[in-house]
Amino acid sequence: MHSLPRLPSWLITALAVIAGLVILFKFVDWIAQYLWFDTLGLASVFWTFRLLKTGLFLAAFVPILVYFWANLHYLALRLDIAVVVNTLINQLAGRALPANAYRPPDASGSGPKERTPDIFILAAVVLALLFALALSEQWEALLRYVWSLPVGEADPIFGNDIGFYLFELPFLEATQNFLITATFAGAAFVLGTYAYAGALKFSIGDGIDAPPEVLKHIVINVILFLLVLAWGFYLDRFDLLQSDRGAVYGAGYTDFHVVRPTLVVVIAVTIALAGALMFPRQLGRAAVALVVVIGYPAILLLTLVVLPWGVQSFVVEPNELELEEPYLRHNIAFTRRAYQLDRVAERTYEAVTGLKLPALLRNDETIDNLRLWDWRPIAQTFRQLQQIRTYYEFGDADADRYLIDGKYRQVLLSARELSEELPVDTWLNRHLQYTHGYGLAMSLTSTMSEQGAPELVIKDLPPVAEGGLNVSNPAIYYGERTSEYAVVATDVPEFDYPRGDENVYASYEGRGGVDLGSFWKRLVFAWQQLDVNILLTAYTRDDSRILLWRQVGERIGLIAPFLRQDQDRYIAVSDGRLFWIQDAYTVASGYPYSKPFEDDLNYIRNAVKVVVDAYHGDVEFYVVDPEDPILRVYREALPALFTDFDEVPDDLRRHLRYPIDLFDIQAEKYNIYHMTVPQVFYNGEDMWEEPWETYGGRRIRMQPYYVLVRLPGEDQLQFLLMTPLTPRNRDNMIGWMAARSDFPGYGEVLVYKLPKDHLVIGPIQIEALINQDTDISQRLSLWDQRGSRVIRGNLLVIPIENSFIYVEPVYLISEGTDIPQLKRIIVSDGEKLAMERTLEEALEAVFGEERPRTADATVDARAAYPEDLVGARAAYSEVEAALRAGDWDAFGRAMEALGSRLGE
Question: What does pTM read for this prediction?
Answer without folding.
Answer: 0.88
